[in-house]
UniProtKB/TrEMBL annotation:
Catalyzed reactions per annotation: [protein]-peptidylproline (omega=180) = [protein]-peptidylproline (omega=0)
Keywords: Isomerase, Rotamase
Enzyme class, spelled out: isomerase
Protein name from the UniProt record: Peptidyl-prolyl cis-trans isomerase
Gene Ontology molecular-function annotations: cyclosporin A binding; peptidyl-prolyl cis-trans isomerase activity
The keyword Disulfide bond is annotated on this UniProt entry: no
Entry's EC annotation: 5.2.1.8
Family: Belongs to the cyclophilin-type PPIase family.
Location of the PPIase cyclophilin-type domain: 15-128
GO CC term, one of those recorded: cytoplasm
GO biological processes: protein folding
Pfam family, one: Pro_isomerase
Tagged with keyword Isomerase: yes
Amino acid sequence: CVLTEYRSTYMSLVYFDISIGGSPAGRIVFRLFDSIVPRTALNFKCLCTGERGVGSTTGKDLSYENTIFHRVIPGFMCQGGDFSKRDGTGGESIYGGKFADEAFRVKHTKYGQLSMANAGPNTNGSQF
């Protein structure tokens, strides 16, 4: 993932280059709501770039590089971001472990919207 700033609207852009079975399958570009959920956006950006080093709770690289979508429901959603166990039970945030929810002002009314996946209130880590 490479980070670029989309300055005209104060939203960051990050992307994943996806492969399936070792063959390139395309690129997914994410636009992040930096001004609405700054800690969440920073967490996702840093996990894309891998710039924060090793996690304090998992001992794994804080990076989405070479991770998988461990849960896919066709026509609905795909879930990924578990860089430590790769099965939906692991991962951590750049802040160490989990972090608190920020805002629920952005409604999920369109296909392709990005959200954190968590296990309840204030349990955000690296999964999305």
